[in-house]
Design a protein that fits this description.
Length: 241
């Protein structure tokens, strides 16, 4: 099972908003997102995981349509999304009444739920933010049934106010892969097991270094990740002097 994992796209943001290139950077975010979606097709990925903060703020119907159009161009790729702190689910959100393309699963609940794809024996778990902060550790003790399926967890957090977790405890959970968002610097936290994809484009000058996506593969028999790589995709890089 091949997957692409991205996070923290922050669609709708204008980086460096006080600078003349801000508008261009806003477009770069959309272009790189389109590129990541396209990569899912090129690399023949089975799944595209988006671990929160796809949108910088509450998405309008127009944003949802634009993003959904891109998803509709990869009908063979199962897209699974959770909301992060920036795009948390609100009572009046356009998300609540939006109809996604058939290949898109938006996990909107505040409690752990899952979506199961029989053809690839894969069950993807996650929950969405409904508040600005979640200061409780809600990830590193999760129990899922041992049912012979490939289990993937989408999570968003990693600081004191956004689901702090213990890395050691995470590593003993029954997930083949843990796809994290929130921390904008890409990092493989546990080899072949757990990673922050990082922001797709660097969103301000503190986010130096390469940005892009994680690409991985899970063996159907052992249900272990056999390869996990960070692939740079961002239009540009900030360089710290
Ligand atoms: Mn973010």
């Amino acid at each position: 099972m091949k997957f692409i994992h991205i996070a923290d796209v922050h669609w709708g943001m204008s980086p460096d908003s006080d600078k003349p290139w801000s508008r261009e950077r806003s477009q770069d975010i959309k272009d790189s997102f389109a590129k990541a979606v396209n990569q899912a097709k090129t690399l023949e990925a089975d799944c595209l995981f988006i671990s929160g903060d796809l949108f910088h703020r509450q998405p309008l119907a127009r944003d949802l349509k634009e993003v959904n159009y891109l998803f509709s161009t990869i009908p063979g790729v199962r897209v699974v999304i959770i909301a992060g702190n920036h795009d948390r689910i609100r009572n009046n959100s356009a998300l609540l009444s939006f109809t996604w393309a058939p290949n898109v699963s938006y996990i909107m609940g505040a409690e752990l739920e899952s979506v199961y794809f029989k053809e690839i024996n894969t069950e993807v778990y996650g929950f969405s933010y409904h508040s600005v902060e979640i200061p409780e550790n809600r990830l590193d003790h999760l129990k899922v049934p041992n049912n012979g399926r490939i289990h993937v967890l989408l999570g968003h957090g990693g600081d004191a106010n956004h689901i702090p977790f213990d890395k050691g405890a995470m590593s003993s959970l029954d997930f083949s892969y843990i796809a994290m968002g929130h921390i904008h610097r890409p990092e493989i936290l546990i080899e072949n097991r757990m990673a922050f994809a990082g922001s797709l484009e660097p969103l301000d000058k503190t986010e130096s270094g390469p940005h892009g996506m994680m690409v991985g593969e899970i063996n159907e028999v052992t249900r272990m990740v056999t390869s996990l790589k960070f692939i740079p995709l961002a239009k540009l890089q900030y360089i710290s002097l």
